[in-house]
Amino acid sequence: MYTILKKEISGFLSSMVAYVTIIFFLVITGLFLWVFPDSSILDYGYAGLDSLFYIAPYVFMFLIPAITMRSFAEEKKEGTFELLSTSPITDWQIILGKFGAGLLLVVFALIPTIVYYYSVYELGATPGNLDSGAVTGSYIGLLLLGAAFTAIGIFSSSITNNQIVAFIIAVFLCFIAFNGFESISSIASLGTLSSALINLGINAHYQSVSRGVLDTRDLIYFLSFAAVFLAATKTVLSARKW
Amino acid sequence: MSVIVEQLTKQYQHQTAVNSISFEAHPGRIMGFLGPNGAGKSTTMKMLTGFIPPSSGKASVCGFDIVEQSLEVRKHIGYLPEHNPLYLEMYVKESLAFTAAMHKLKNPTKRIAEVIEMVGLNVEQHKKIGQLSKGYRQRVGLAQAIIHDPQVLILDEPTTGLDPNQLAEIRGLIKNIGKEKTVIFSTHIMQEVEAICDQVVIINKGLIVANDNTSNLKNLLSGGFTFYVEFDNSVSEEQLMTIESVNAVQQVNNHEWKLSSTADIRKQVFDFAKSNDLALLSSKQEESSLEDIFRNLTQ
C-alpha cells in the first residue's frame, strides 16, 4: 500500500498535478477570503474564516475529481493496470494506496491555509479573538469532506478508462452528495422524509462538524461514506474476474 | 517449481477463448507458445498470472493454485504482458525501484543495477521511459519481469518490434534465464522458436494442436525435403522424375528446378547430373521448417 501511495505521490509531483492543485486551491480561496468584496474578511467586519469554509467544499468539488480522475482510468487505458494486478499485492492495497495519495494531496492543499487563520487571528480587534474551536472543527470537517470526495473520485475513475468521463461523473456525484439531497428535501410534499434526506447529504454533517462539535454520528457518517465508495471500487475492479 | 495446466478453459459470452488445454512446463526447458493471432495465447498467460480467472480447469505455478493462492503465484512469477505496458512518465530506475518495492526486495539498489546490466540498459538508464525507443522500452519491461528473480517467467511476445541486434541479445538473455528457471514465452517468429525453445506448444482456436520437443516436432511432421537445383543445360521434367524418391518437380527458372522428395537425395541428384552430362551449378536442400508445420496445423 505504501509503495502505491509513494508512486502516486511522485506521479502527482512529476505531472505537475500537485503544484497546480495546491496553487489553484490557494488562489481561489485567497481571492474569496481577502479580495472579492462580497466575501472578503476585511469588509466583513468579523474575525472569522467562515467564507473559507463556505467556499472550500465547492472548490473541492472540482479539484478532487481532477486529482483522482487519472488514478484507475489511466492505468486501465495504458494497460499498466495489468502490471499492478499481477504484482503480489491485493486490490485493496492498490485502492487504499491511491485513496491515501489523493487525500494526502488534499491535506497538503489545506496546510497553507493555516496562514489565513494566523492572519485573521492577528488581525482581530483584540488579537486572538477568534473561535479557534470552530476553526479546528471546520478543518476536520474539510478533511472528512475531502476523504468522501476522494473516495467518490477513485470510484468514478475505476468505472471507465476515459479520464474526462471519470471527472464528470465524479463532479456530478460530489455535487449530488453534497447539495443534492438537501435540495430534493425541500420539495414540500415529502413531509417527514425530508429530514431523513437532509441527513443523507454531506452538507448537513459538514455544517455540524464545522460548529466545532465532533459528533461520533458525523464521524461515522463520513467514514462509512468513504468506505462505501471504496468498497464499490473494489467490486468494480473484481468485476474483471466475473 | 514448474507450471502445470490441467484442462484450463476460458469461456466468454459468445466464444471459448481457451478450450480445455493441458500442458506442463519445467525449469531448464524453455517453452515456446505458438499460435495465430486470437488463438488464446494471451488469455492463457493472463490466467496463469492471475489477471483473469479461468472458467474451469486448474493450473498451478510452483505448486500454488492460480485461483486459490493467487498472491503466492504472483510472487513467483515474472510477467511481461503483451504490448508491454509501462509508466511512461517514470524514469527507468524509478520504475524498477517501484517494481522492486512491490516485491519487497531486500537490497533494491544492487539488484536494479544488476538487471540494468543484464538487459543492456546502461546507456539509457537515466532517461524517462517515455523518451526511450521501442526496443529499450521492451528491455525495461523485461527488467521489471526479472527483477525479483522469479522461478517462472511468462513473456507475451517479448521480441516484437526489436531490431535484429536487439533480437539476438534478448534471445540470449531469455536462453540464459531458461537454464535454471521455467520460461514460457509466446511469439509469431518461428526461427525464434527453433533457435531457443526446447519445447513447443502450438495452440489454435483455443485448442492445443501440438505439444512436443522442438526436434521431435520437426521430425514427426516433416513432410520431406525440398531440393533446389540449377544445371547448366536444359533438362526435361520426365528425366528428373526418374530420380529415386522424387515425387514432384517444378521449374523455377530456365535451368533451375525445385524437387520435392521423401528422402535425402543429394547424392542421387549428383549422380543424375553426371550420367546426363550436366554440370551442377547450384544446389540447396531444405528440411520442412517449423513454419510449414505451423501453417499445416493452424489452417
Automatic annotation (TrEMBL), chain A:
Keywords per UniProt: Cell membrane, Membrane, Transmembrane, Transmembrane helix
Subcellular location: Cell membrane
Family annotation (Pfam families): ABC2_membrane_3 (PF12698)
InterPro entries in UniProt: ABC-2_transporter_component (IPR051449), ABC2_TM (IPR013525), Motility-assoc_ABC_perm_GldF (IPR019860)
Gene Ontology MF annotations: ABC-type transporter activity
Residues covered by the ABC-2 type transporter transmembrane domain: 51-232
Major localisation: membrane
The name this protein goes by in its record: Gliding motility-associated ABC transporter permease subunit GldF
Species: Solitalea longa
UniProtKB/TrEMBL annotation, chain B:
Key words of the record: ATP-binding, Nucleotide-binding, Transport
Keyword flag ATP-binding: yes
InterPro entries noted in UniProt: AAA+_ATPase (IPR003593), ABC_transporter-like_ATP-bd (IPR003439), Motility-assoc_ABC_GldA (IPR019864), P-loop_NTPase (IPR027417)
Gene3D superfamilies registered for this protein in UniProt: P-loop containing nucleotide triphosphate hydrolases
Any one GO molecular function term: ATP binding
Pfam families on file: ABC_tran
Top-level taxon in the UniProt lineage: Bacteria
SMART domains: AAA
Residue ranges constituting the ABC transporter domain according to the UniProt record: 3-230
Family matches, as NCBIfam families: GldA_ABC_ATP
Similarity comment: family membership: Belongs to the ABC transporter superfamily.
PANTHER family named in the record: ABC TRANSPORTER, ATP-BINDING PROTEIN
Protein name per UniProt: Gliding motility-associated ABC transporter ATP-binding subunit GldA
Lineage: Bacteria, Pseudomonadati, Bacteroidota, Sphingobacteriia, Sphingobacteriales
Gene: gldA
